[in-house]
Specification:
single chain; alpha+beta; three-stranded antiparallel sheet; 32% strand
Amino acid sequence: MRVHVLSGDGEAKFCLEPEIELARNYRFNRAQLRTIEQLIESHYDELTAAWKKHFC
C-alpha cells in the first residue's frame, strides 16, 4: 500500500506498510515531509481502508 502526495510545491510517495516510509520525494523540503507524514499517521486508518476498497 502506498499514497501519493501532489501539490504545487512537489510530489512524494509514501509506503503505508509494513510501516509509513518515504519512498520518493520531488521538491518537498524536510519540514513539508514531516507535516505530510504526520497527516498520514493521523489518517492512517482512513487511507488504508480507502486503498483496500479501491484495489481489493
